[in-house]
Amino acid sequence: MAEDDEDRADALFHALADRTRRDILRRVLAGEHSVSALAAGYEMSFAAVQKHVAVLERAGLITKRRNGREQLASGDVAAVRSVGSMLTELEHVWRGRISRIDELIAADDTTDNEES
């Protein structure tokens, strides 16, 4: 994986590591929301919600646009799919390792049976 890809993966997983940010992402993937409307659903300051939105935006998971005085946030489905692809890639690596371990155990069992 290239260095830029690793930096992007770090940003994506950092953004998704927080429960509030995952909830915000779910809400904006369902439809565009103003940051004010998003903030109304949490027991934290508007500024704190803005910071969570900023982290998601820097990671590329959401986009924002202005409509008058409102900031409207939308989820980026392609970015979410890229996270899924990264996890699938990691799953394939581990499945390959587990298969190799199974093969070694099976080969060891065969050797034990031949010796007895």
Textual characterization of the structure:
- This protein is of the alpha+beta class.
- It has 5 helices and 3 strands.
- It has a 3-stranded antiparallel sheet.
- A hairpin with a 2-residue loop joins strand 2 and strand 3.
- Helix 1 runs antiparallel to helix 4 (46-58) and helix 2 crosses helix 4.
- The radius of gyration is 22 Å and the shape is elongated.
- Pfam families: HTH_20.
- GO terms for molecular function: DNA-binding transcription factor activity.
Quick recap:
The protein is of the alpha+beta class and 116 residues long. It has helices at 3-16, 19-30, 35-40, 46-58, 77-115; strands at residues 33-34, 62-67, 70-75. One of its GO terms (molecular function) is DNA-binding transcription factor activity.
List the topology elements.
Elements: H1 3-16, H2 19-30, E1 33-34, H3 35-40, H4 46-58, E2 62-67, E3 70-75, H5 77-115
Antiparallel strand pairs: 1-3, 2-3
Helix pairs in contact: 1-4, 2-4
Protein name: Winged helix-turn-helix transcriptional regulator
Domain HTH arsR-type: 1-95
InterPro entries: ArsR-like_HTH, HTH_ArsR_DNA-bd_dom, WH-like_DNA-bd_sf, WH_DNA-bd_sf
